[in-house]
Design brief:
four-stranded antiparallel β-sheet
């Protein structure tokens, strides 16, 4: 655990792993140290904002360093299901690179419960992790410059759904698309995942027609590998 100054009312705590970061984040939330205004977790850090008229960085660092941090303190959070259509343009090439079939990669991803570790990068974008995910997904060497809202991406140990269209450079592998709920707005779609667990609805294998309860149309086939990495929308979604 390493403490780094940021400015007069904040400092950064650097840790060795995501597990350590989330364990410390949960410990700090439960400790509710006086003067702490906000805790912002990321992959290997926790940013601590505090009120300098109530406490000091020195006092908080001493208090945090003395806290017992136990793994698995965990948060009690609701679970939601998210319908996903696995037809992203990176899916076939990514599966081949990982040494599995597209169907096996889909099965591995949708059979797990994914937990929101933290949010960032863009408003409502949740970095989700699962202890059962065994793949370290390489980031794209050539970033795409735009990605549609609802696109499902994989990179490293993380899975994420873009809550709104993004026009910055992105290196996530595009593997699918989340059709928006009826009447949902981009902001509303992103907010549903904050601090929650997520499990995709069960969907048919690639290229097969859907039964009445699924979200995949009979004419919806997996595309081949392509350089254009914008995720495909559901038929009729515009």
């Amino acid at each position: 655990m390493r403490f780094l100054p940021v400015n007069s009312d904040s400092f950064l705590i650097e840790l060795a792993s995501l597990d350590e970061t989330l364990a410390l984040f949960d410990t700090l939330r439960q400790a509710a140290l006086p003067g702490v205004d906000e805790l912002v977790p990321a992959a290997r850090t926790v940013l601590v904002h505090f009120s300098p008229w109530l406490t000091s960085a020195r006092a908080l660092i001493a208090a945090i360093a003395a806290l017992p941090v136990a793994a698995g303190t965990g948060r009690s959070v609701p679970q939601i299901s998210v319908a996903v259509r696995y037809d992203g343009e990176d899916l076939p090439a990514l599966a081949e690179r990982l040494g599995v079939s597209a169907a096996e990669l889909i099965e591995a991803h949708q059979s797990l419960r994914w937990k929101v570790a933290f949010t960032g990068f863009a408003p409502g974008f949740a970095y989700m992790v699962s202890p059962g995910w065994d793949y370290e997904v390489p980031r794209r060497t050539t970033p795409r410059t735009r990605i549609p809202a609802g696109s499902l991406g994989l990179a490293g140990e993380f899975s994420g759904i873009y809550p709104q269209a993004a026009d910055r450079h992105h290196r996530y592998a595009d593997v699918g698309y989340r059709p928006p709920p009826a009447g949902a707005t981009a902001a509303g779609r992103g907010g549903a995942l904050r601090g929650r667990r997520r499990r995709e609805d069960r969907l048919p294998a690639p290229g097969r027609s859907a039964d009445a309860g699924s979200r995949r149309g009979a004419d919806d086939r997996l595309p081949g590998p392509a350089d254009n990495l914008a995720g495909r929308r559901a038929p009729g979604a515009g």
